[in-house]
Specification:
Strand content of chain A: 5-15%
Oligomer: heterodimer
CATH architecture of the largest domain in chain B: 3-Layer(aba) Sandwich
Bound molecules: flavin mononucleotide, iron/sulfur cluster, FE2/S2 (inorganic) cluster
Order of helices and strands of chain B: HHHHEHHEEEH
Number of helices of chain B: 7
Largest sheet of chain A: 6 strands, mixed
Order of helices and strands of chain A: EHHHHEHHEHEHEHHEEEHEEEHEHHHHH
CATH superfamily of the largest domain in chain B: Glutaredoxin
Strand order of the largest sheet of chain A: 1-7-6-12-9-10
Helix content of chain B: 25-40%
CATH topology of the largest domain in chain B: Glutaredoxin
Largest sheet of chain B: 4 strands, mixed
Shape of chain B: elongated
Structural class of chain A: alpha/beta
Strand content of chain B: 5-15%
Largest interface: A-B, 67 and 54 residues
Number of helices of chain A: 17
CATH class of the largest domain in chain B: Alpha Beta
């Protein structure tokens, strides 16, 4: 598997290939914790201002501007404030956070500490999905090393800044990646999402002001402070600052984690050259560019279309950046089957809190199963769309929408793959009618 | 810990439609653990201003110590330790797929079935395991040596197909690799990934 940068100097992936890259020593020898030192000489407001200038947008999926989110935390609240790192990474297709923590744990600790300084927080939690146990062990070792060196705990770098960093484990529930479900889970409850507002920035963990950020978002912060927000923004485009990690999987010769400048031109070149083309020289059929929850793109929307890889470029091309889980499918893939596979995922991961999603995903799976068995009714494609319509925009949290979007886009972009499964029934019906 | 007093957790969320498992009745016995294990639990508890927050880390420890699953005495212990009701423990335990409420085999093979693994041959891997072990996903061998499960994306899509045994990742799987792994498990030459 490849891990590195294309089209720019590696930033987040600068140290991942160094020997002993998880050690504090290697991190410090390569400029580590210098950004924290600098941030501690700046006022919290100035740190937030730099992050705003960087045009950094949340890398967890929603793409919300990070500086703006930090700005929502009330300054005059008497309650403690919390920084929570979302390391739940359960979106099918995404695996970048895993390698960031596996190879460069101190970068995350430094990013969290800078965020804590900016927000006036003394406690940070890293919420990691339960399956990533080995990463919790790596993070715990790094935190202990940092504490030993006076970088975590009291009097950090000899200043009055004090901050604790703790790891926390999830236990196998995709919904706990949703930030309010994550907070419930961190409080020891079932991982059901909460009503918004109030947003976590105002009432989050233990009802205290809380910022929840993705691993990739927080690990971008040290570089922003080091080089300045404006310089970071200029690495990307005006609205999508900096660089972005793409987790590439599926039918390419070189899967891996790719760091690209935002606005990288273009997606075809990325697949055919950077990822070294399709396996067995088969034809490209489709790409899901941003993790399972975004619209599927047929090859005809990619090849020869100069699709720009950033937030605006992908929306213009009919999809989204999402979490950057880039799944490549060749001509042998049946899009009906792949959509059925993802629908099984959403049904399994629906938390059961609200009816449209809990019942809706269950019905979707039932219809998919019946079509797969060859017992589909001619109207079933429409029935799937109707079910999606009753879930999308009517569920308590965005998981419901995420379950509907892949189906809606697959039926629209690949109607022949659905028709093929429904054809036998159509034929029987016609022959009965003819008798 | 900071000197400021945080607001307490907003309390329990009940789900009346979610029936509790049979074992939810109060057990006669409370599990006991060694001082080392208690110390390990206390280290987790020290991270949080609200004790209940440690429920998942503690469940993993109890599960590890009680033969791979949360048994009624283990649940009673957790309720006691965290100062919550037994139903509160069940309520959380039944939500999370990694918390077992039934015994599992010594080696728990968890094969990823989601899209990237699927298009790179996950079905073949599952079928092969089924053949070699004589059990279907969701089952455990009679000698309690192996359990087989199909699970959702584990963040290894770039090294698909893959599975987890306990907490250990096994990636870029082939049928030959599966044979080797099963062989090593049978010969006791392999970790079961329980930590
Ligand atoms: C169903 C669902 C699952 C999510 N899973 C994740 C996840 O695994 N990791 C993550 O960082 N964000 C995830 N998110 C997004 C979070 O709710 C939240 O927007 C994010 O953690 C904010 O961090 P950011 O601004 O740095 O992106 C998920 C959202 C939804 C609705
Ligand atoms: S949309 Fe689905 S995941 Fe979200 S609250 Fe409703 S049931 Fe739970
Ligand atoms: S799809 Fe199998 S690890 Fe992601």
């Amino acid at each position: 598997m490849f891990i590195g940068a294309i089209g720019c100097e590696p930033l987040q992936l600068a140290r991942v290939s160094l020997e002993n890259s998880t050690s504090l020593d290697v991190y410090r020898r390569n400029g580590g914790y210098e950004a924290l030192r600098k941030a501690l000489t700046m006022s919290p407001d100035d740190v937030i201002a730099e992050v705003k200038k960087s045009a950094l947008r949340g890398r967890g999926g929603a793409g919300f501007p990070t500086g703006m989110k930090w700005g929502f935390v009330p300054k005059d609240s008497p309650k403690p404030k919390y920084v929570v790192c979302n390391a739940d990474e359960s979106e099918p297709g995404s695996f970048k956070d895993r390698y960031l923590m596996e190879r460069d744990p101190h970068m995350l600790i430094e990013g969290m500490l800078i965020a804590a300084h900016a927000l006036g927080s003394k406690t940070c939690y890293i919420y990691t999905r339960g399956e990533y146990r080995y990463l919790i062990e790596i993070m715990d070792r790094a935190i202990a090393e940092a504490r030993e060196a006076g970088l975590v705990g009291g009097k950090i770098l000899g200043t009055d800044f004090a901050c604790e960093v703790h790891t926390h484990t999830g236990a196998g529930a995709y919904i706990c990646g949703e930030e309010t479900a994550l907070l419930n889970s961190l409080e020891g409850l079932r991982g059901h999402p909460r009503m918004k507002p109030p947003f976590p920035a105002v009432a989050g963990l233990y009802s205290c002001p809380t910022v929840v950020n993705n691993v990739e978002t927080l690990t971008a912060v040290p570089d922003i402070i080091k080089m300045g927000g404006e310089a970071y923004q200029k690495l990307g485009t005006e609205k999508s600052g900096g660089t972005k990690l793409w987790s590439v999987s599926g039918h390419v010769n070189r899967p891996g984690v790719y760091e690209l400048p935002m606005g990288y031109d273009d997606m075809e070149k990325f697949i055919m050259e950077d990822c070294q083309g399709m396996t067995n020289s088969r034809k490209l059929k489709a790409v899901i560019p941003g993790g399972s929850s975004v619209y599927i793109m047929p090859a005809s929307d990619i090849l020869g279309k100069d699709v720009r890889m950033d937030y605006e470029g992908l929306v213009a091309a009919g999809s989204m950046v999402g979490s950057g889980g880039f799944i490549v499918m060749d001509e042998t893939v049946d899009i009906f089957e792949s959509t059925k596979n993802l629908t099984d995922f959403y049904k399994h991961e629906s938390c059961g809190w609200c009816t449209p999603c809990r019942e809706g995903t269950d019905w979707l799976v039932k219809v998919f199963k019946r079509i797969a068995k060859g017992e589909g009714q001619p109207e079933d494609a429409q029935l799937l769309l109707d079910l999606c319509d009753n879930i999308e925009g009517k569920s308590f949290c965005p998981l419901g929408d995420a379950a509907a979007w892949p189906i809606q886009s697959a039926i629209k972009k690949f109607p022949e793959d659905f028709k093929r499964h429904l054809a036998p029934m159509l034929e029987t019906r016609e022959s009965i009618a003819a008798d | 810990m900071s000197s400021e007093q945080p607001i307490q957790s907003p309390g329990n969320q009940f789900t009346p439609n979610n029936p509790l498992p049979q074992e939810a009745k109060v057990p006669d016995e409370i599990a006991k653990f060694s001082p080392q294990v208690i110390a390990e639990m206390d280290a987790h508890l020290a991270k949080y201003p609200v004790q209940r927050s440690a429920i998942l880390p503690l469940m993993f420890i109890v599960q590890r110590e009680r033969g791979g699953y949360l048994d009624p005495p283990g649940v009673a212990f957790l309720a006691d330790k965290l100062g919550v009701r037994i139903t509160d423990i069940w309520e959380v335990a039944t939500f999370y797929s990694m918390i077992n409420t039934e015994p599992v085999g010594k080696y728990h093979l968890q094969i990823c079935r989601t899209l990237s693994c699927k298009i790179l041959g996950a079905d073949k891997i599952t079928e092969h395991c089924t053949q070699r072990l004589g059990i279907k996903p969701g089952e455990t061998t009679e000698d309690s040596m192996f359990s087989l499960s199909e699970v959702e994306c584990l963040g290894s899509c770039g090294t698909a197909p893959m599975m987890q045994i306990g907490f250990d990742y096994h990636e870029n799987l082939t049928t030959e690799k599966i044979d080797e792994i099963i062989e090593n498990c049978r010969g006791g030459r392999m970790s079961n990934g329980v930590r």
